[in-house]
Amino acid sequence: MASLNLAQKIISAHLADGKMEPGQEIGLKVDRVLMQDATGTMACLQFEAMGIPRVKVEHAAIYVDHNILQTGFENGDDHRFLQTFAAKYGIHYSKPGNGICHQVNLERFSIPGKLLIGSDSHTPTAGGAGMMAIGVGGLDVAVAMAGAPFYTKMPKIVGVKLTGRLRPWVTAKDVILEMLRRLTVKGGVGKIFEYYGEGIKSLGVPQRGTICNMGAELGATTSLFESDEITQDYMTRQGRPQDYKRIAADPGCSYDENMEINLSELEPMIALPGSPDAVHKVRDVQGQDVHQVLIGSCTNSSYIEIMTVAHVLKGKKVHPNVTMAINPGSKQVLETVARDGSIYNIIASGARLLESGCQGCIGMGSAPGTDWVSIRSFNRNWPGRSGTKDDKVYLTSPEVCVACAITGKITDPRDLGEYPNIPWPDKFVIDDSGIVPPAPAQYADTLEISRGPNIRPLPLRQPMEAILQGEVLIRVGDNISTDAIMPAGAKILPLRSNVPAISEYVFYWLDPDFAKRAKEKHGGFIVGGENYGQGSSREHAALAPMYLGVKGVIAKSFARIHRANLINFGIIPFEFQNASDFDLLAQGTPVTIENIVGNLKQGSKTMEATTDKDKKITLKVDLTPRQRDVLVAGGLLNYIRSTTTQ
Ligand code: F3S
Description:
This protein has about 650 residues and is α/β, with parallel strands linked by helices. Helix 10 (about 305-315) runs parallel beside helix 13 (about 400-405). Helices cover about 30% and strands about 20% of the residues. It folds into three domains: about 5-265, Aconitase, domain 3, CATH 3.30.499; about 270-415, Aconitase, domain 3, CATH 3.30.499.10; about 470-645, Aconitase, domain 4 (Alpha-Beta Barrel), CATH 3.20.19.10. Strands 14-13-19-18-15-16-17 form a seven-stranded mixed β-sheet, sandwiched between helices. A seven-stranded mixed β-sheet has the order 25-21-22-23-24-27-26. FE3-S4 cluster binds near residues 65, 66 and 100.
């Protein structure tokens, strides 16, 4: 057999359907699944609708990390729903405060060589431990829990050779920011990034996780590293050496594309407000006043990072004009830093210590004030994601963050002097009291699921109608994120299990009247530019438009997860044959597409849409036979129900 790279090895070991040729649809047997509360509530309702008594994957976990603020009954109701649901159906439940799903998963459940899918776009973080981990929609997770394969297009595999060694104050975050600078937020679409070379030996598992985490911002299917002695060491310190397995590319393997980064040449980097790919060297933008510094998120909140920040803060004070908050990625990180005593340095500096969870990253608190410059160690800075409409959020490493917090200005951390090289603890604090295992299967029948009034029934789409007809309800530009389609934040997120209520906020920041108009017009079409639906895996960005009657999205191109989510909810993703036709489809333009079911069933690759004054435009429909069947059925749930026997 030919030499395989690592990604090909893991895929071939899980291949249930199709061929490993880039662009071909493949079905993969899923070992493990991960959910978080913002998407997982819906995934659970979807799983329940399939009528299967217990999950059929080897491990499933749901983490309450997004909606940990309880300002009304909604989040509390949802937490109790998730806990009782998890107990009954065979899922581990990670309590609020136990940590961010990706950090906890890396610590407690990552296993090299396994295939994980997760209803969160940063699921690839586990690639830092040699897992193939893919972010998907909640419905894909529900279907995998029912034992069905996960379908996706076989990506191209990009080999990224890391040479050299990071210099002091330069970090894994700078590696992925360099990738974003080179490739942009569209540069990874349809690709897996596989990192190799001598440079990986200077990166610990969480640092590798940082790089894989923000591969999501490249639009990549996933990113991964081999497992090696560094992985083994990490897992041993996690008290689970038995989970380690060596997995690496074959010698002499090849990649579809190749890149190289010399770590020795990198400098501290920062992404300017608006997009994670607006990357510059810190020294080129330094000097600007800073008002807020936030350290945390699934990208940068591991033990070494929080300890490094604590060490830098020792004996120093946060600048009087800066408000600084730190949220450790997990209870384990918090406990291990507390055991060391370094937590004192954080508190004494005047920084605010927040509990472990997503917090400000998802707009749950810490929204910046008007015109504040906010420096964050997070992964995303789409406008408005912070909870403040005209925010100015910069993305950078924790090292740059803490330098800014002390000086009150954007600062190159190399100006702080000697770099504190923090050693690993002999053993992390192993305390799984925040993870509730499922009830034994034999008692599952007897367990009741708690459903508060915030848990509303799951809306379903009807099978595809014969003619798609309606107006263009909104036309948006390039790189519209799922945050822009379905905003988050403390007011909106608690409504995630109440689709009628959350639907009122679709496109809210861009056009507060969208939901009202969509309902008055009985649905219609959305028109988008390039890379429509980039960003998080938020399936409410497809589910809520479906509820409002959106029948199709016509865009120049789509981001992978959102495109899959649209199909899953019975909304056809059309692409312009001629990008210039975008100009013809202004808001209010009528659109009619005839014989839609016939076209889907016949496998037509293009369809004709009739618009204003009988003008015709050609739309591309790039769908696999299975996706066509899903759309005809009115979405994946209808399709699975019609095809699965329990
Ligand atoms: Fe949470 Fe932000 Fe990561 S919302 S899962 S910390 S991207």
